[in-house]
Write a sequence for this structure.
């Protein structure tokens, strides 16, 4: 009985005061502003992270104005793949810094940058293959 009386006498008034403070703050302080949407751009470069770990863009999709920026940040043109690729030799943090630099410079030029993963390749659609037995050869001496 005494414990209940102490809770009612000591804690409940504090909870009531805290509730009044929270309600007063909610009415006096406006909601924080929402983040604005990205600016609309006419030109966009899409960098793709492929399933083999390569990061790059197909040559024909790279805007002429963006090519020198890619070169300056370490992207290399690979003619046999027809793509600008960022070498994996830079490591994850080095590649992240280079992509960040590309994004900053291209957005300053009014070119948007999209980052995406390539579509995963599915092998489930292929019918299962049975293991083939190795041909046997018999040698006679």
């Amino acid at each position: 009985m005494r414990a209940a009386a102490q809770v009612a006498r000591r804690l409940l008034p504090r909870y009531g005061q805290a509730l009044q403070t929270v309600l007063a703050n909610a009415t006096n302080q406006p909601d924080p502003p929402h983040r604005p949407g990205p600016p609309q751009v006419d030109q966009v470069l899409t960098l793709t992270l492929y399933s083999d770990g390569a990061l790059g863009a197909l040559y024909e999709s790279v805007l002429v104005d963006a090519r020198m920026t890619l070169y300056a940040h370490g992207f290399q043109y690979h003619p046999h793949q027809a793509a600008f690729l960022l070498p994996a030799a830079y490591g994850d943090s080095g590649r992240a810094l280079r992509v960040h630099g590309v994004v900053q410079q291209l957005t300053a030029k009014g070119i948007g940058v999209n980052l995406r993963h390539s579509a995963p390749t599915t092998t489930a659609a292929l019918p299962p293959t049975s293991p083939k037995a190795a041909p046997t050869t018999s040698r006679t001496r």
